[in-house]
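[step 3/7] inverse_fold.run input=structure_tokens len=115
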């Protein structure tokens, strides 16, 4: 019998300095997190990367403005789910309607391992 066990947790941040694009900031946050980890363990243990359970949590100030499907599609392997929550940071520009936005990403990867 196998059960999913979390084996990787990576965090990242991303921003969009002009335009207030939460999806762009989130995609950059996910890429930042991905570039902090390696899947060498999967190769060493001969685990199919598609068996990974990948849970992505994105924090931005206006979650409803983020395209979670684009974020999901940006992950290269596994069974990916994306949850968007209120978080991150908006930095208003006092002279114009052009906020800088910062997104936070957490990527948790679980593998089906023996109980």
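[step 3/7] decode complete -> sequence:
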């Amino acid at each position: 019998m196998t059960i999913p066990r979390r084996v990787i947790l990576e965090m990242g941040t991303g921003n969009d300095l002009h335009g207030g694009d939460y999806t762009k900031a989130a995609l950059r946050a996910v890429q930042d997190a991905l570039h902090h980890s390696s899947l060498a363990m999967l190769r060493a243990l001969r685990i199919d990367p598609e068996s990974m359970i990948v849970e992505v949590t994105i924090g931005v100030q206006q979650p409803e403005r983020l395209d979670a499907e684009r974020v999901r599609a940006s992950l290269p392997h596994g069974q990916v789910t994306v949850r968007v929550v209120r978080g991150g940071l908006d930095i208003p520009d006092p002279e114009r309607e052009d906020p800088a936005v910062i997104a936070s990403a957490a990527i948790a990867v679980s593998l089906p391992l023996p109980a």
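[step 4/7] annotate
The CA atoms of residues 7 and 110 lie 6 Å apart.
DSSP finds three helices and five strands in the chain.
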